[in-house]
Hints:
The complex is a heterodimer.
Chain A (H helix, E strand, L loop, with lengths): L1 H4 L15 E12 L2 E13 L4 E5 L6 H8 L12 E6 L2 E2 L5 H7 L4 E4 L13 H13 L3 H14 L5 H5 L8 H13 L5 E5 L7 H18 L2 E6 L2 H7 L2 E6 L2 E7 H6 L4 H8 L50 E4 L2 E3 L8
Parallel strand pairs in A: 3-8, 3-9, 6-7, 7-8
Antiparallel strand pairs in A: 1-2, 1-4, 4-5, 9-10, 10-12, 11-12
Helix pairs in contact in A: 4-5, 4-7, 5-7, 7-8
Chain B lengths: L11 H10 L1 H18 L1 H4 L33 H37 L1 H16 L2 H11 L4 H10 L3 H14 L3 H8 L4 H9 L4 H24 L11 H8 L8 H28 L8
Helix pairs in contact in B: 1-13, 2-4, 2-13, 4-5, 4-7, 4-8, 4-11, 5-8, 8-11, 9-10, 11-12, 11-13, 12-13
Organism (chain A): Neoroseomonas marina
Protein name (chain A): ABC transporter ATP-binding protein
Membrane topology (chain A): Peripheral membrane protein
Amino acid sequence: MSAAASLPDETGAAAAEAPLLSVRDLTLHIPVPPHVLRAVDGVSFDLRRGETLGLVGESGSGKTLTALMLMRLLEPPLAALPRGEVRLDGADLMTLDEKRMSALRGRTISMVFQEPMTSLNPVMTVGRQIAEPLVRHLGLSSREAAARAEEMLRLVHIPDPARVARAYPHLLSGGMRQRAMIAIALACRPAVLVADEPTTALDVTVQAQILELLAELQREMGSAILLITHDLAVIAETAHRVAVMYAGRIVEEAPVAALFAAPRHPYTRGLLASIPKIERVPAPTLPEIPGMVPGAGDRPRGCAFMPRCARAVSGCAAEPPPLAETDRGHRVACWNPAHG
Amino acid sequence: MSATAAAPQGQIGRVWTRFRRHRLALAGGFVVALLLASALFAPAFAPQDPTLLDTALRFRPPFADWAHPLGTDELGRDTLSRLLYGGRVSLTVGLVAMVTTVMTGALIGITAGFLGGVVDNLLMRFVDTMLCFPQVFLLLVVAAFVPPTLLSISLVIGLTSWMEVSRIVRAEILHLKEQDFVAAARALGASRARIMFRELLPNAAAPILVAATLKVASAVLMESYISYLGYGVQPPLASWGNMLTNAQGYFDTVPWLAILPGAAITLTVMGFNFMGDGLRDALDPRLRMDP
């Protein structure tokens, strides 16, 4: 845990506790001759027990790849490429053999996917799909596992759990399926839940219910959640801390309130400014960030955001800025961060 | 409404409704059921022992007397009894060969499709190689070395006709393994074998089922071929194929000896084929929009 100790703790309440999940310098460089795609480029963060860390960024910023690397779910030929360190409760996930990693997946670290419509096996009953990891990881008999599956369905507020347990996924609505997915992922009470855009495919009211459910289950089970999303509203509602990703790097990390109140990185400021607000007199045009995310192959040598940045200074092109602490618990990777 | 792969379980009712609407398939299924029943209860229906010789009563025409409703053959054996017992042989060979075909084909197809890469290449080139030889030729070569028993004939037919099934299964697996639920299963700690056989294979059940039906028909036909050529079921055991062989010497004078087993083979093959067609339509996920 020496790597973890070198980083200052963010919040006073959690200060005493060592992080449950500690990610250091996670990197995925994909050689695509003649370029190297720096899809994920030195990502570091900590996740504490019972905490929700929001990982926010637009499509292609590397957030989903980060999640897949944590779970070691990248398929060959990408599977051999990740570098860095992922420590979960002391074990280094990057060096575990596949068998021991399988034993952790679903048991200690679990994942909810974006698409509830396709993430369930269409020819297996919902109850069976919840029961399987229980039998596999906890060695329950199939009868005990079936009973626990029903209990899990009740816990995620699915009405008539006994009936739903016997149903096939196509009979359930999107929201119900995502509840079922959460029941499956949390069945073994994992210490860490990675939720990759868990509400993106759902409509807004259902989205709010699912987020509420995640928060409730977190209070109940004490799981830590890594919530991956492109939606800042979701973050504001659910997360304790936020890490903003841009072009494969974390550019700003802060407690939710601090980030929304005083964003430091120009990219974060741009993101927040581009959210339509109801209370404001409608602006003639919604502010947007000029330009596009650079392709992973043609990033500038320095700060990847520089070409789109209004605050760019001469030093920005030379080398990428390190993620440095500005206030307590507030870290920014910018050569010329905004103040207040 | 699910747009994913065909899901036979849980939708059996819907599939049955659609199958029932397919008249020919229903007729095919009925014929198949009738043939299976007659083969199963052959001893009850057969007027006498199919190998009982009665040289005094050779070449009796059909419908002439009640003792031999479909007449007798060149050795005075009762044709109806031989047809019923021959059906046992033909259908047994058909079903055992189908099971062999499906198991081999599914195993090779899922291994190739799921593992991909070198394994996929090697297995598929092996499939190509097997497909280069005419099946009858393969059968005759093997039959020359293996003594023909019911089991050996079935296995040999099965082991020379699994290639299409393996291609069908491989294609299905290639499509299925990219689906989210496979990644979800991995994220829950499922092993490769578990993903292959518990998650993927049941999802490929529909095309496998259809292929299986059609394979019974072609295996029955194959058995007839090789029995006709004399390498199959050996006399005095009756099979539709060797009944045809025996009949060919008398085709100009007593044609019914050839026509009857020929008709039985035709009925079986058509019954299974229509059933397979109906199943294919009923299980096709793209047609799932109708009520």
